[in-house]
Design goal:
The complex is a heterodimer of chains A (200) and B (381). Chain A is an alpha/beta fold and 200 residues long. Chain A starts with 5 loop residues before the first helix and ends with a helix. Helices cover 41% and strands 18% of the residues of chain A. Chain A has an 8-stranded mixed β-sheet with strand order 3-2-1-4-5-8-7-6, with helices on one face. Chain A is built from 5 helices and 8 strands. In chain B, the strands form 2 sheets. In chain B, strands 3-2-1-4-5-6-14 form a 7-stranded parallel β-sheet, sandwiched between helices. Chain B has a 7-stranded mixed β-sheet with strand order 8-7-9-10-13-12-11. Chain B is of the alpha/beta class. In chain B, helix 1 crosses helix 15 (356-370). Chain B has 2 domains: 2-154 and 321-370, Rossmann fold (3-Layer(aba) Sandwich); 159-316, Rossmann fold, CATH 3.40.50.720. The model of chain B has no long low-confidence stretch (mean pLDDT 93). Chain B contains 15 helices and 14 strands. Classes of the chains: A alpha/beta (200), B alpha/beta (381). The interface between A and B is medium-sized, with 28 and 27 residues.
Chain lengths: 200, 381
Amino acid sequence: MTAPSPVLAGYVTRVWTELVLRSFARETNLLVPSSRFLLVGVGPVADGLANALTRLGARVEVASDDPVELVSIAHRSAVVARHIVTAQFISADVDVVIATGRSHPALTPDAVAAADRPLIAVNAAPPPGGDAGAFHGDGIVGTERNLTRLSGPRPIFVAPQVSPGELDHAVAEVRSTFADLLESVGADDVEAELAKVLLS
Amino acid sequence: MPVTAALSDELRLAGTVDGLRIGLSLVLEPKTANLALSLADAGAEVSVVCDAASTRDDVAAALHHAGIEVFARGDADGATEHELALAFLDRRHDIIVDDGSALIRLAHAERPHILETTIGASEETTSGLRPLRAMERGGRLRIPVVAANDARCKTLFDNGYGTGQSTVFTIADLLGTGLTGKSVVIAGYGYVGRGVARAVSALGATVTVSEVDPVKALEALHAGYPVAPLVDATARADLLISATGIAGTITVEHLLALPDDAAVAVAGGVDQEIAIDAAVAAGAIRRNVADRVEEFALPNGRTIFILDDGACINCTAGEGNPIEIMDLSFGVQLVSIELLATRGSALAPAVHPLPDEADARVANAKLRSLGVRIDTIEPSS
């Protein structure tokens, strides 16, 4: 998802977070408002998700091993933030854990506190490098809908990751506009011109 | 579905619906199948009916296998749907649980004799209650109807949250683009409109609301949304969503005012909420361009897209409301059925609200399932 333009990159990141949430809803048919989401990691994707989830009515916490970025996102998005200092950082009351792939430990069953209720795991790490937010389990014990069930201290269901192709399709028009503008107005003015298009 | 499980268990233990014939008119998919199965487990003789567009044949087959009478086929044409609906009514249910009041109205129109033994019905939609209240005012309603739709545990969450999320996410999936930065106009700021506005805004689009009720328009302003007449607002819309549940909300004039490539869809809703037939009569030419997406070449030279033939998009193109919301709504249906089973014979032929204590039972069942405790007020001595 690297883009040569901050304006384009911001747009692509925002669409990516939207695709992650839509995919979660489509694959699980679960409700966002009132559900407890743990966003793992910081950065633009975490920002976008925290913003969208809180506006939808979800109960959101953010956890990361980067305390500096963590306090920043906590203040920007008015969400509860937790510095990850122990191996087990996904508490029993979390319904959905979304990993952004940046500034957090790997997600494994060891990170999950025991509970009876299911946990949904979503990988929101954007391409390229989408593996950074993957949940690594010891064994697959089944599937439900398109969700992969892993063994662990509570039932863990891993949602399928949004494909890079879906993102490419969703942002194709804006990427094309950027390319056209780069050719017509040049590198010095392309940022401002693309921003004007997005504002229009 | 903890609420459905808890409340249907209460019905089973009390024998409240034991032997009663209960007919369910619902979107036929896995979640609604749970309500039918729960009522059967509680001792009722259950039948289900559904139109073709909202019927999943695998679910219908599973229910039939479980001993429930099914009057629904995914391949049914209009005439067959009508025959199935009449056959459903001929089961002479004690209680009818309706969704849009089509079955209650059909019974009044074509099977009035069955109403002599019907205890009553419940109705779970705003658009379904509207004609029933008109029938009541005209002295034509012959059975008591519980306004399940108006229960707080239904309206606040199903209309206000479930439909908002499922509608907006389904629309974005069909369009295959992001809503980020898009201009979205929402016709109607009732519970559904509020939920749609919240979801659209959360995904990064800007919202403009159109309303005919000045109080609701004022409410939209206080939620931070600009308000404008629909024909003015549509001129700047990338996406127009009707959330009124009233036929003809989006007129040909509104469609003609839309810019090129705008999309139009319906949240919840009724037939012809978008005046598609009138647009075609006015010269619009339609063609399929993607799954459930039709392009309309309008007589003014512009091209727009209408999603899923203007149907209730979260039900027909999506998977319906999220399961937690359905659980709450089924809880409301179950306490409505309980009310009719225990006190229905004493109710007048009118539309009746669900008592507050029944609503509270549903909410308490949900809170208990979440492990959430609340304060209680002790009566003063």
